[in-house]
Amino acid sequence: MQLAYYPGCTLHASSSLYDIQTKKVFKQIGIDLKEIEDWNCCGATSASKTDEFLAIALPARNLGIADATGLQEMLIPCSSCYSRTLVSQKRLAEDKELKNRINGELSRKVEGRIKISSIVEVLAGKAKSGEIASKVTRKLEGLTPACYYGCLLTRFPTDLSVPDDVENPQGMETVCTALGAKPIEWGYKTDCCGASASVNDTDQALVLMYRIFKDAIARGANCFVTTCPMCQLNVDAYQSRVYERYGLGKGMPVYFITELLGIAMGMSPAELQIDRHFVDAVGLLKELKLV
User: Fold this and answer.
1) Number of other residues whose CB lies within 10 A of the CB of residue 52
2) Which domains does the chain have, with CATH numbers?
């Protein structure tokens, strides 16, 4: 099985380990990811806040490239990239004039044929079919993750069909359960971590993260698992400041879903680059005798 693949800027920069893990894990479950050529930044948060046309046009160029591959589906691991691309595709389908204006400048036109999928959507499907469980060589017993979706994966600034419950998504829980982990039920799985406000309004971002940490700890989580690079970075990098300010005790590792998949499939922490986290993410795996 082959899918088009759009990593986005973050997976080629601060979260390059996520890109490496995604390719390794998907190869293990029989999916060949074909990175679309000459892709560009989707505009992420900045374009949508400053220029509505660019917020549609930037992802549109990638959509044209993806359509030209002839593949039926494109995987996008980053929640922000997924959201912006999905919104752009919907807007272009609804606004023929805008689509013609943008296509007039593109060498590879947006046709609207390719399906845009998040990493959770694809992995949850493989978990439900039993394909992921069949690849597990090491059950993640003792791991009680708080599955943290963040605010972008299921909620959009337009009416879109979402392949999961908007307020209480279960895709990551389905995957984690297939790996032998026992994800907790908690109330902050789709709350915002502050995103880029961690840079320009750090105090408010710390308040938002405190609420997330407090609930996860109270529900018995021993780690977080996420798919959003921004969420992972914030909850990992700012964790010590939140704990110091609010006295929450020791920190918890913040895993990408691909890291848990890789460990369960027999890959080593070094191979997955799990030692690159701000909060130690290897110690818990050793403590539970998972590595």
Assistant:
1) 11
2) 2-119 (1.20.1050.140), 136-287 (3.40.50.11810)
Q: CB 200: neighbour CB atoms within 10 A?
A: 9
Under 8 Å between Cβ of 36 and 69: yes
For the chain, what's the residue count? 291
- Name the packing angle between helices 239-246 and 202-218 (round to 10°): 80
DSSP state of 184: P
Tokens encoding 183 = 């994800």
Quote the tokens at residue 278: 């701000």
What is the spatial distance between Cα 134 and Cα 284, in angstroms, rounded to a whole number?
Answer: 24
Q: How much of the chain exceeds pLDDT 90, in percent? A: 90
What's residue 100's pLDDT?
98
The structure's pTM equals 0.95
- What digits encode the pLDDT tens for the residues 170-181? 999 999 999 999
CB neighbour list of residue 96: distance below 8 Å, 6 or more residues apart: none
CA angle (234 as vertex; 275, 280 as ends), nearest 5 = 25
- Residue 68 tokens read as 């030209």
| Of 8, 7, 16, 39, residue with least CA distance to 233 | 16
CB 66 within 8 A of CB 114: yes
Enter the tokens of residue 230. Answer: 């921004």
Q: Distance between CA 237 and CA 208 in Å, rounded?
A: 14
Residue 35, classed as helix, strand or coil, is strand
Alpha-carbon span 110 to 20, nearest angstrom: 28
